Amino acid sequence: MRRISFIYILSMMSTLSCLGVPADSIQVERHSIWHKISSESWRNPALHGKAYQHAHSQLRVGVDNSKQSEAFVLQKGAGKTYYDIEAETFLRLSKRTSVWGNASYMTGKNRDIFWNSVSDYDLLEPYILADTLGGDTERERYVFEGGYATQRGSFLLGGELLFRADHEYRTVDPRMRSVVTDLRLRGGAAYVTNTYHWGAAIEANIYKQTNNVTFYRETGVIPEYQMTGLGAVYVRFSGEVNNLYFNGGGVQLYLSAVPRSGNGFFADLCLGEHRYERIAASLNSLPLTKLYAEQMSGQFGWCHHGANDFALSAHVSYVRRLGDENMVGSSLSNNYPILTTLTMYKNHRLDTYLQAVYGRQRLSSWHVMLKGGFRQNKEEYVEPARKMGYSQMYGKLEGQYITGLTKQLTLTSGLHGGYYANTDSELNIPVVNTEAGVVDMLYTNYDFMKANYFEADAYIRGDYRIGSSRYGVFLQIGGGYTHCSVGSHETRVSLNAGMTF
Question: 58-82 as b/e, with b when 16 or more CB fall inside 10 Å?
Fold first, then answer.
């Protein structure tokens, strides 16, 4: 019955795609999920210059709101409300040269963050500053991006700059404040043959975060913990060492093989290494810990692009994270000698999946994307021995339909659903030697980590072109829901409006 229903849906979408007026070709080119196949190769700026055939610019304002009935991860909070404005453009200066850019500003609030007093938690954990009180934080973010690509004979050349500045703070005790600067530079090239673009690019990243927590209350302060992994605490420097900074960065290499016609085999490979050091500014810039992150990701597949689109591909991503702790001697004239360095934290993350995409582009455009995969996250702390991890099987289904309702109005709609089923989980910590509050935090996060999840999202966007000009306006509304098997849930709502030209 399910197979018959699926075939019926495909038949209906195929029929609808032959009716009505043609969808705006620029909107199809910019928003079709078919182009997700090429998103990995576009991280090479030389290949990004060939991403689109038409120039396109957009000015957008939006609001994004999410709320969890209970925080899935205490350190990330139970929801957010962000307001942002963004301007982006992609211009073809000639048949051989393209430029693109992006500038945005976001402001908003993160709600109910606990056991975390730094920004970029996913990047720096477990080496963070944390306390038991927590609360809401205010956030501001600035993003700038610019790129250039050109063709010289049989070579494509390109460069790109990406810059992010984040400011996150709290106006009540504990008054955390973090300022982040993140700069990425990319340079790439590709060799053009009769059938393929063979690309290579390198990215360099410089990261810095200054972080401090202050208290204004007269009744005293609560301790700030220097976390070191799975609830372990660097006891000696916890309490009042609340002024830190994080220095980091790294490099990544991108390799790509892209068929020029959009038909044939394609492949992308990314290799990278990054390091992030936590330094106590108030202790004469004493380095406490260093986190090493090594990444490898790749995809390989075959695609056919035409009246009927089809692609089949395999994807894998692996990250190994190792943490070093410095064993520090007694202070000598406010200098702390580093006696030795021990690798105490180990984390392995794996995500692999198969993906199939099918669709048609006639008067209207529709595509269906199906994913099935496996992901795993295992953490270990050496002494005292601690382990935590989980494994999941998952499936995702995404559909999109783009059609022209009139000569001026194009409608884009999409649906997404996914299910994550836990297959294995483990938590092993020395409860007797761990503070009670930390134990509660670990078990709370673990309950959500090993749960099953169902998620669904939908959106609809209308683009109206003003007369025969290149100017237009648009409105997009989206929403989503995630249900967790432990009884919690998340709701999401977004609204975006703006103009295109």
Answer: bebebebbbebebbbbbbbbbbbbb
